[in-house]
Amino acid sequence: MTHPYQDHYFHRAKKEHYLARAVYKLEEIQNKHRLVRRGNRVLDLGAAPGSWIQLTHRIVGPKGLVVGVDLHPITHPFPDHVVTLQQDIFDEALIGLLASQYGPFDVVLSDMAPKTSGVKTADAARSELLFERALDVAAEVLRPGGHFLAKIFQGDAFHTLLARVKKSFRRVKVVKPDASRKQSREIYVLAMEFKGKND
Ligand SMILES: C[S@@+](CC[C@H](N)C(=O)[O-])C[C@H]1O[C@@H](n2cnc3c(N)ncnc32)[C@H](O)[C@@H]1O
Questions:
Q1: Domain spans, the chain
Q2: Alpha-carbon Rg of the chain, whole angstroms?
Q3: Regarding predicted confidence, which is higher, 12 or 141?
Q4: Does 52 show up as a binding residue in the annotation?
Q5: Which residue in 16, 24, 125, 174 has a CA-CA distance of 20 to 30 Å to 161?
């Protein structure tokens, strides 16, 4: 019997040697919006097991950089232009470290998700906190003109958060990739052209 989560994208990921089916969500957005480009510096928040890094490090190439951050270790071997950090996104020292050692970034991605409890409102509230933190990090480490893409489970704070994103970026879209399960409340906020810290 096929496990309900072992859908088309799951099998495709196995066949194409991707670490997670999540890669197809980013691939779809990338194909449509050309978010990441050759030579870019990319920050990937909630990066484990590493399928988004697999895709982005090939796009940016050896002159670019991909920094992946996750609570969990990323054990997959990557080339030298990939750096992985095992850290909590809420760690106070993280922004300073990212900005001083690796920034400014052209693109900040976040596929972070809380451990789900099954209680929809609680899961959405925790996802919104992760989204908000990703936005705070992006605001500190993105270059003006840079882009931000982050997952969120829509809950009560969604519209307030979206309004915040719209203040900081010139072009904002809410996207639901085909590879995102229909029954899931997750969506992605795609924000392009960061106005810069002082706007
Ligand atoms: C859906 S997975 C990411 C999959 C990844 N994009 C890929 O393609 O392999 C979500 C990740 O968010 C991470 N995460 C959740 N809370 C976090 C936090 N506070 N700090 C850092 N990472 C976190 C989880 O550990 C988990 O690995």
A1: 8-194
A2: 16
A3: 141
A4: yes
A5: 24
Question: Under CATH, which architecture does the 8-194 domain have?
Answer: 3-Layer(aba) Sandwich (3.40)
Kindly state the average pLDDT of the residues 99-126: 94
Torsion-angle region of residue 193: left (phi > 0), alpha (psi -120 to 50) or beta? left
Residue with tokens 């399928």: 51
The separation between CA 142 and the C-alpha centre of its own chain, rounded to angstroms, equals 14
- Find, among 44, 102, 52, the residue nearest to 70 by Cα: 44
Percentage, residues of the chain above pLDDT 90:
79
Residue keyed to tokens 């030579």: 39
Retrieve residue 83's tokens: 């750096």
C-alpha 113 – ligand 1 centre gap (Å): 6
**Which residues does ligand 1 sit against, CB inside 6 Å?**
19-20, 22-23, 46-52, 69-72, 88-90, 111-113, 130
Catalytic residue among 14, 120, 151, 166: 151
Strands 105-110 and 82-86, by their bridges, are: unpaired
Among residues 181, 118, 129, 180, the alpha carbon closest in space to that of 155 is found at 129
Instruction: Name the DSSP class of 115.
Output: P
